[in-house]
Amino acid sequence: MADVLAYLAGAALVLWGAAHIAPTNSVARSFGDISVDNKRILVMEWIAEGVTHISIGVLVVIITVAEGAANSAVELVYVLLAGILAVLATLTALTGARTRMIWFKACPFRADRLRGAPRYRRCTLSTRTS
């Protein structure tokens, strides 16, 4: 059962990372008229976070296939990877989630496409705009 959970977690991370990378161009465009350097940094960081998720997911699957989830060394790797994800989530909460664009707050839905929805109010997780 632990192996199945590890495979599901690895697959979820790979999908999450791919979903993060896919809209990179539209995310960069949503920042409007910013300098080329700022746009490059934004794109680089956006892709880096997606690649991090994919890499962690692949590592979970590979180590589970190689050693099984019940191995104590594998369990240590899982804990370390969970720590990395916690650091990444904290970084996102302290930086990206403080932007005026509420969709940075982990909203997977594109509610802005609903009729009458304000442009940057894509998520109902918060009504804070600054």
How would you describe the overall organization of this protein?
With 130 residues, this protein is an all-alpha fold. The protein folds into 2 domains: 2-94, no CATH class; 99-130, no CATH class. The protein is built from 4 helices and no strands. It has helices spanning 2-21, 24-30, 36-67, 72-94. Helix 3 (36-67) packs antiparallel against helix 4.
**Class based on secondary structure composition and strand pairing:** mainly alpha
Helix content range: 55-70%
Q: Report the total helices.
A: 4
Low-pLDDT segments = 103-130
Radius of gyration: 17 Å
Q: Major sheet, described briefly?
A: none
Strand content: under 5%
* Integer count of domains: 2
Spatial shape: elongated
In total, the number of strands is 0
Order of helices and strands: HHHH
Q: What number is the mean pLDDT?
A: 80
Termini separation comes to 44 Å
Give a short summary of the structure:
This protein is mostly helical and 130 residues long.
List keywords for this structure.
130 residues, single chain, 2 domains, elongated, mainly alpha
Question: What is the topological layout?
Answer:
Elements: H1 2-21, H2 24-30, H3 36-67, H4 72-94
Helix pairs in contact: 1-3, 2-3, 3-4
